[in-house]
Design goal:
45% of the residues lie in helices and 14% in strands. It is α/β, with parallel strands linked by helices and 535 residues long. It folds into 2 domains: 332 residues, Purple Acid Phosphatase, chain A, domain 2 (4-Layer Sandwich), CATH 3.60.21.10; 85 residues. It has a 6-stranded mixed beta sheet. Helix 8 runs parallel beside helix 9, helix 16 crosses helix 18 and helix 16 runs parallel beside helix 19. The protein starts with a helix and ends in a 6-residue tail after the last strand.
Length: 535
């Protein structure tokens, strides 16, 4: 090989080696100096992409199952950490709302009060002459329809659904055992419907020597009941549910609710013999004192109920109505700041506040005492004593009973209701015209009673005026017993009154009508006692 060719081959090898070196060096520089563009940003940081964008479940997909669940639980807890306080807060709000709702749901009691049912069973009569004589010689009780009257009344009570039904004595005609048996069965139906019934005896109900049966032409002696038998008939009407019972009488305390107790007082005297008048025994007074102490500790209001009246109420009925020791009992009630006492017995609807003002002895006459009271009122003096509600006899037209309600603040309202016998008769499909028009029947019934009492005292020539005269008496009678206002000018200016004055001026009926008018200057069917009112 010549030299020339040798050098040409060597130069080519050097050039090839240089080219390879330049290419290697340039490639290395390109890799290290290449600019970061948008398309190459993520691939240049693969580890950061894994930690930021891959979900946790994906990052743990290849771990143990237990580890995966723990990771998921952690994720759930992390997601609910902010919700937990809101649940606790909501629970507290719910509890507060429940407490407020419990307070709002307190329902003050509603009490129905009925007196002098004088229930008469038809099992002790054959409706003959003896029974007829008994009916027409009565004082206005609708004896013939007392079972229907009771049924209508109890149906109204069921509809009213009171906290309790209170029977304040004289629940039977004359305490006959048959009357007690039948009455207790009817009352049991009300109790079975969830309405508590509270019973106390009246002077007609125990050891009554007037208990009778009416068969044939003459009445015969009936079978009265003893105090123990009274308990046997009615122990489930207040006595079994009482929080305290008096060992000396048939008195007891029944809790209406956490705010009110009914003190059911046995005011009757039936041992060793039955008396019309009432009295609270000294032993019972001791028991009453103990109950008032307990009530004070419990912070409850006590409402006493008795058959006999606490205060003298009527110029028509002036004897055997108020308790024999009424002044002592009045002082006792007022010393404990008892707002109201509920009674019956009088048969007349009455509302009265005890006047604690001192009245001179010489001013005890009705006219002078009234003038003294008005003078004291003009001077700003207030009676300030306990109120008495006398519930009239439901057995005498217009057949009323009372309703007592309290509001949440403790204010008390009393009003009367009239048993709607006609509506009951129509609802139950009766075809008896007396029951379907019971109001008119009641008026005519009273007229017949009065007519029988006076027709033999009148000249036959004047009997034409009998209907007008008895009509006036019947109207006054119903208004008086119902406790309504009677306008004296209207009565004394009427033609029937003039006939009474001309024909029977000295009669018992004229005296009674004068007393009715004199006692009826105000309405006695509504009473509102605010809790703030001083007794």
């Amino acid at each position: 090989m010549d030299k020339k060719m040798y050098w040409k081959g060597a130069a080519a090898l050097l050039l090839a080696a240089a080219a390879i070196g330049i290419i290697w060096f340039a490639g290395r520089q390109w890799r290290s100096e290449k600019p970061v563009t948008e398309s190459t940003a993520e691939p240049s940081r693969p580890e950061e992409k894994t930690t930021e964008e891959v979900p946790e479940k994906e990052s743990t997909a290849e771990t143990e199952e237990g580890e995966l669940k723990e990771t998921e639980g952690a994720s759930d807890r992390e997601g609910t950490e902010e919700e937990t306080p809101s649940r606790d807060s909501g629970r507290e709000e719910e509890e507060m709302e429940e407490e407020e709702q419990a307070e709002e749901e307190y329902r003050p009691p509603v009490v129905a009060v009925v007196s002098d049912l004088h229930y008469q069973s038809r099992s002790i009569t054959d409706f003959g002459k003896a029974y007829y004589d008994f009916v027409v010689s009565g004082d206005g009780k609708v004896v013939q329809y007392l079972p229907e009257l009771l049924d209508a009344f109890l149906e109204e009570i069921i509809d009213l659904n009171p906290t309790a039904l209170i029977l304040s004595g004289d629940i039977t005609m004359n305490g006959e055992i048959e009357n007690h048996q039948e009455l207790s069965q009817k009352l049991r139906e009300v109790v079975d419907l969830g309405i508590p019934v509270l019973v106390i005896p009246g002077n007609h109900d125990i050891n009554n020597h007037h208990a009778s049966r009416y068969f044939g032409s003459e009445k015969t002696t009936g079978q009265p009941i003893t105090p123990q038998q009274f308990l046997e008939f009615y122990h489930w009407m207040g006595y079994d549910q009482a929080i305290s019972r008096d060992s000396a009488s048939l008195s007891y305390v029944y809790p209406l609710d956490e705010r009110y107790w009914m003190m059911m007082l046995d005011t009757c005297q039936y041992e060793p013999v039955n008396l019309v008048g009432g009295r609270i025994q000294e032993e019972t007074l001791v028991w009453m004192e103990e109950q008032m102490e307990k009530a004070k500790e419990a912070g409850v209001t006590v409402i006493p109920v008795g058959h006999h009246n606490l205060l003298p109420q009527s110029s028509l009925y002036t004897t055997d109505c108020a308790l024999e020791n009424y002044q002592e009992i009045t002082d006792f009630f007022e010393s404990w700041e008892i707002p109201v006492y509920v009674s019956g017995h009088l048969h007349v609807q009455r509302l009265k506040q005890h006047d604690r003002r001192e009245m001179p002895e010489e001013k005890l006459g009705p006219g002078a005492k009234l003038a003294a009271i008005r003078e004291a009122e003009d001077a700003g003096e207030k009676a300030g004593g306990i109120y008495e509600i006398v519930s009239d006899a439901v057995s005498i037209p217009p057949c009323q009973y009372g309703e007592i309600r309290w509001d949440e603040e403790g204010n008390m309202t009393y009003r009367t209701r009239q048993v709607d016998v006609s509506a009951w008769a129509m609802k139950n499909g009766s075809d008896n015209p007396d029951l379907l028009d019971f109001e008119n029947y009641s008026r005519e019934y009273i007229k017949k009673i009065i007519a029988r009492q006076i027709e033999n005292k009148m000249d036959p020539m004047t009997l034409d005026f009998l209907d007008e005269m008895t009509g006036l008496y019947a109207d006054l009678y119903q208004d008086y017993y119902a406790g309504r206002i009677i306008d004296s000018k209207t009565v004394y200016g009427s033609v029937p009154w003039q006939w009474w004055i001309r024909l029977l001026p000295e009669s018992r009926q004229v005296r009674e009508m004068r007393a009715m008018v004199g006692d009826s200057e105000k309405d006695n069917n509504y009473l509102y006692l605010p809790i703030s009112e001083e007794n």
